[in-house]
Design a protein that fits this description.
This protein is α/β, with parallel strands linked by helices. The chain contains 34 helices and 29 strands. It has an eight-stranded mixed sheet with strand order 3-9-10-8-7-4-6-5, sandwiched between helices. A seven-stranded mixed sheet has the order 17-14-18-19-21-20-26, sandwiched between helices. A six-stranded mixed sheet has the order 23-25-24-27-28-29, sandwiched between helices. It catalyses: N(6)-[(R)-lipoyl]-L-lysyl-[protein] + 2-oxoglutarate + H(+) = N(6)-[(R)-S(8)-succinyldihydrolipoyl]-L-lysyl-[protein] + CO2.
């Protein structure tokens, strides 16, 4: 054995030290597989492969069958070539020690070193070849922002010298390792041919980043797809189809430029290949069984995608350029390149049905990413498509936004979470190599804009967008990867932007050299057409006829768009709900039925909520006490906040309504009150969701803790709620103020959803609110922000009708509520589903009221025949003698209990009446008018916890003035001014308080 140990340094030689790493790129250490040596770390001298070779060599000495057959063959041949003659043994185990210790290298050690060098060279191309790939169509920029070329990949001579090889080795045959497919069916190749094939695979118009993936099977799959000789070959028919798609992409942009030269279009010029790229992904996915594709993208190229991918009628697109178009004809007047579309059609390549949905998106780039993912997840859920075999998503990004917007990372981070995964997304980056006017060197710190995808081990395929065939092949592989591994993949289309940021912009101000080259650049369509004509695939006449054919289609559609009145906006819905707004062809009745449920249903739900449905399931002793408390409340026919929520959810599940509750720590509840998921204290990861054991035929209940994200997760849940009106989808913030990091979703999608996108959405936001410690900003859910964005007119005196409540809700942009009782919370959740339409619901949920002894509701307030009360009037001594009441206090939420306690302590039950607003917006004008008129001699006071410029006062005060004809002021008082200060609140006249003046 000692002689064998002495042999190894000579056998492995100095060449084993020259491995894969250079100071430029850090190589991730993958888990070792028997057929694949690990990469050396940066700055190392190759110890990883050296030790690997030692292991392989010793294993072979002990048992030749224990190593891969290629290693067995290698060691046998090496030992045979090293054998000097018949007088010496040919076994490597008995190589003379004097030979091993000599200063010169034996033939065996030289052969081993050279094979190791070749393996290292192959691996260097696989890891770093993308850094020298020819990716920029303009030929002036490096896609990775670095012009340095790794020293082992510069020239053939440099490569040979780096790996201690000679020119004489170029024509030697080398055994190929199992970690490459460049040989095809051949197991050996000359070094010259090895380098040629590696250059062809890794250093031309495709740059592959995948060796950081820590799964050998996935790495092998990618190698096989790109290294196998001849894989990137296309039939004549495929080339003709590609040319036709390029014609449509480019001529559509040209047509818009001719007809509306002064209009902003955010055209696709410079990356026209994106259209055939997306169509290839869809074709390949359809071939593998996908029936529904949901797309999200920014504004650049959206009109082209609508026309040539979704296949929206061209006349509908051209109508959007009509200068006489009114804002009412297109929602809130949002720009045409923000709108979405849903279309079902036949995929002409596969002859299969395909549903395509392009989700509307504002100018907030990447905001649509989580929305698309949520909608995709919902579609998969409703189809029972747990593996994503029927529904998938495609996201198109700009390079600057992909690198710069944090929601991209938040969305990627959801990709493998059980309750959020969509089983893989194909990401297509339109890499213009510029963001508006910002050079990429000023816009990102990472080499590529796509580096964020590495955090989820998504392979990244960079491709020169002026090579259409390379693009199409890469997109086909990306679609197949997604279907095979159910993981994300990124296609980086390295292209350019032929015009400025928009068609009116002058890019020469800021990128003069780039745009000088762009002005000289031959369009990709001409390049590809010339190529096909030269090789005889098409004739010049056929090419010109294809152009004329599509130009004719555009002209005819343009004529139709002017000849007839077209109802614009109904054609731009990205999430239609067939049959929801009509019953038997007739519009639904604008009424809301009672939201109560039979008592036996409440009792049954209470029994399940206080039990553990599974046998041999050990729960925490503290949780046992909570369940006993629920059982006791059920016997007494009462419910606290958590039990009322349980009953609202459970009763909807019984009615076939899917309920999904998502957010940070929602399974237990931030304040440890919910406990919808029980954890076995003896068995790791064994859980029970009692609400899924209510009835045999109930709808499913999903409750899921989210990642520590608000922007991404709220966008996801909004997209989920978008898919179907027959689901109650709720997002709960851990604390109410945390919604501020999701403000973009709230501003762009939730508050403006119907006006901007003509889209109903029933998403529910649960925002814990209340000044109970944790600091003023952490205690407040900022109700003033939501009320400020409410669309009801404070100065318009309403016309009261029998259906005033429902008509108000129909006209509002969202509903804002702050419930003071569990029964109110129960009813408002059920009303959300029973309404004949959908509106977002914002609920300021309590913290202290979760366990407040007085914050309980009787079943009498929740049984059949009961409904949500927008206003809960005074029902005590003051209500029985309204003429004696000196002050009528209006409030909302938990403040009511503080006021009742203070009033009782002062013995003012007959002089002070307290009325609660359970729904703040839309403002309950009718009920407030009744309450004020009921106490004609009382001063009107609004009381809240928040400062005057926060909370509800600025919203309610002008509305009080309107409904009371500006005859009675409404005074502001803050609850914290009252306790212990008799002279401050209860005994002062309204004239001494802060009033809302005319």
């Amino acid at each position: 054995m000692m002689s064998r140990l002495r042999l190894l340094p000579s056998l492995l030689g100095a060449q084993a030290a020259r491995l894969l790493a250079t100071p430029r790129v850090q190589v991730s250490s993958c888990r070792r597989r028997s057929s694949e040596p690990p990469a050396a770390s940066p700055g190392s001298r190759g110890g990883g492969v050296s030790s690997y070779m030692e292991e392989m060599y010793f294993a072979w000495l002990e048992d030749p069958q224990s190593v891969h057959k290629s290693w067995d063959s290698f060691f046998r041949r090496a030992s045979e070539e090293a054998s000097p003659g018949p007088t010496q043994s040919s076994s490597p185990s008995v190589v003379p020690e004097s030979r091993a210790l000599g200063s010169g290298r034996t033939k065996t050690s030289k052969l081993v070193e050279d094979h190791l060098a070749v393996q290292s060279l192959i691996r260097a191309y696989q890891i770093r070849g993308h850094h020298v790939a020819q990716l920029d169509p303009l030929g002036i920029l490096d896609a990775d922002l670095d012009s340095f070329v790794p020293s082992d990949l510069i020239t053939t001579i440099d490569k040979l010298a780096f790996y201690d090889l000679r020119e004489s080795d170029l024509d030697k045959e080398f055994q190929l390792p199992t970690t490459t497919f460049i040989g095809g069916s051949e197991s050996t190749l000359s070094l010259r041919e090895i380098i040629r094939r590696l250059e062809s695979t890794y250093c031309q118009h495709v740059g592959l980043e995948f060796m950081f993936i820590n799964d050998a099977e996935q790495c092998q799959w990618i190698r096989q797809k790109f290294e196998t000789p001849g894989v990137m070959r296309f039939s004549s028919e495929e080339k003709r189809t590609l040319l036709a798609r390029l014609v449509r992409s480019m001529r559509f942009e040209d047509f818009l430029a001719r007809k509306w030269s002064s209009e902003k279009r955010f055209g696709l010029e410079g990356c026209e290949v994106m259209i055939p790229a997306l169509k290839t992904i869809i074709d390949k996915s359809s071939e593998m069984g996908i029936e529904n594709v949901i797309l999200g993208m920014p504004h650049r190229g959206r009109l082209n995608v609508l026309a040539n991918v979704i296949r929206k009628d061209l006349e509908q697109i051209f109508c959007q350029f009509d200068p006489k178009l009114e804002a009412a004809d297109e929602g809130s007047g949002d720009v045409k390149y923000h709108l979405g579309m849903y279309h079902e059609r036949i995929n002409r390549v596969t002859n299969r049905n395909i549903a395509l949905s392009l989700v509307a998106n504002p100018s907030h780039l990447e905001a649509v990413d989580p929305v698309v993912q949520g909608k995709t997840k919902a579609e998969q859920f409703y189809r029972g498509d747990a593996q994503g075999r029927k529904v998938m998503s495609i996201l198109v990004h700009g390079d600057a936004a992909f690198a710069g917007q944090g929601v991209v990372y938040e969305t990627f981070h959801l990709s493998d979470l059980p309750s959020y995964t969509t089983n893989g997304t194909v990401h297509v980056v339109v890499n213009n190599q510029i963001g508006f006017t910002t050079d990429p060197r000023m816009a990102r710190s990472s080499p590529y804009p796509t580096d964020v995808a590495r955090v989820v081990n998504a392979p990244i395929f960079h491709v020169n967008a002026d090579d259409p065939e390379a693009v199409i092949y890469v997109c086909s592989v990306a679609a197949e990867w997604r279907n095979t591994f159910n993981k994300d993949v990124v296609v980086d289309l390295v292209c350019y932007r032929r015009r400025g940021h928009n068609e009116m912009d002058e890019p020469m101000f800021t990128q003069p050299l780039m745009y000088k080259q762009i002005h000289r650049q031959v369009p990709v369509l001409k390049k590809y057409a010339d190529k096909l004509i030269a090789e005889g695939t098409v004739t010049l006449q056929e090419f010109e006829e294809e152009i004329a054919k599509y130009d004719r289609i555009c002209e005819e559609a343009y004529g139709r768009s002017k000849d007839k009145k077209i109802l614009h906006i109904k054609h731009w819905l990205d999430s239609p709900w067939p049959g929801f707004f009509n019953v038997d062809g007739e519009p639904k009745s604008m009424t809301c039925p009672a939201t109560g449920v039979p008592e036996d249903v409440l009792t049954h739900i209470g029994g399940v909520a206080s039990s553990v449905p599974l046998e041999d399931f050990t729960i925490h002793t503290g949780l046992s006490r909570i369940l006993r408390g629920r059982a006791d409340m059920t016997r007494k026919r009462t419910a606290d906040w958590a039990l009322a929520e349980y009953m609202a959810f459970g009763s909807l599940l019984k009615e076939g309504i899917h309920v999904r509750l998502s957010g940070q720590d929602v399974e237990r509840g931030t304040f440890s009150h919910r406990h919808h998921v029980l954890h076995d204290q003896e068995v790791d990861r064994r859980t029970c969701v009692p609400m899924n054991h209510l009835w045999p035929d109930q709808a499913p209940y999903t409750v899921c803790n989210s990642s520590l994200s608000e922007y991404g997760v709220l966008g996801f849940e909004l997209g989920y709620a978008m898919a179907s009106p027959n689901a109650l989808v709720l997002w709960e913030a851990q604390f109410g103020d945390f919604h501020n990091t999701a403000q973009c979703i709230i501003d762009q999608f939730v508050s403006t959803g119907q006006a901007k996108w003509v889209r109903h959405n029933g998403i529910v936001l649960l925002l814990p609110h209340g000044m109970e410690g944790m600091g003023p900003e952490h205690s407040s859910a900022r109700p003033e922000r939501f009320l400020q964005m409410s669309n009801d007119d404070s100065d318009a005196y309403p016309v009261f009708s029998k259906d005033f409540e429902v008509s108000q809700l129909y006209d509002c942009n969202w509903i804002v509520a702050n419930c003071s009782t569990p029964a109110s919370y129960f009813h408002v959740l059920r009303r959300q589903i029973l309404l004949p339409f959908r509106k977002p619901l914002i609920i300021f949920t309590p913290k202290s009221l979760l366990r407040h002894p007085d914050a309980k509701s009787s079943f009498d307030q929740m049984v059949s025949g009961t409904s949500f009360q927008r206003v809960i009037p005074e029902d005590g001594a003051a209500a029985r003698a309204p003429g004696q009441v000196r002050r009528l206090i209006f409030c909302t939420g938990k403040v009511y209990y503080d006021l009742v306690k203070e009033r009782s302590g002062r013995g003012l039950e007959e002089q002070v009446a307290i009325t609660r607003l359970e729904q703040i917006s839309p403002f309950p004008f009718d009920l407030i008018k009744q309450e004020a008129e009921r106490y004609p001699g009382a001063e009107l006071v609004w009381c809240q916890e928040e400062h005057k410029n926060m909370g509800y006062y600025d919203y309610i005060s002008p509305r009080f003035m309107t409904i009371l004809g500006r005859t009675r002021p409404i005074c502001y008082f803050r609850i914290w001014d009252w306790p212990g200060h008799a002279s401050h609140g209860w005994d002062r006249k309204c004239s001494g308080l802060q009033q809302a003046r005319v």
